From TrEMBL:
Gene3D superfamilies per the UniProt record, alphabetical: Endonuclease Chain A
Residue intervals of the PLD phosphodiesterase domain: 78-105
Native organism: Actinomyces ruminis
InterPro entries found in the cross-reference section: PLD-like_dom, PLipase_D/transphosphatidylase
Source organism, top-level taxon: Bacteria
Protein name: PLD phosphodiesterase domain-containing protein
Amino acid sequence: MTRAHGSVTCSTYNIARSSALWAALKEVAVRPEVNVRPYLDTDVADAKPKPWRPATAQVARELKGAVVMRTWAGEDGKRPRNHAKFVVVDRQIVVVTSMNVSRSAEEQNVELGLRLDEPLLARAIEDQMRALEPHVYEQVAGG
């Protein structure tokens, strides 16, 4: 992912600073030629922020240059769960996984993931997430 030259789109239920993916996101987000767009679950990130698990506003501040999206409550007051876990790199490579973005998930858990070099699927996933934005997500200020 750190070799991305155009874009990185990812989605996760939770994110931890201990994660290798977090470090990679921070590295690519500062490069102006790379569009970084993480999707996060508000209830998990903002309900009880921990020093190792940043709130969505902290993610936006720390991923300088990224467009950070979080779930928002609709007219019914209910917020959907963002439980999708994937990374799309350069609209080409797709990684779909059961893993949350944390060191324990990366090093201790039994997880399953699939990496595909599939541009049509990559574009379809990104397009679907963008289509959901007006209904499910809001941009987090501070990025």
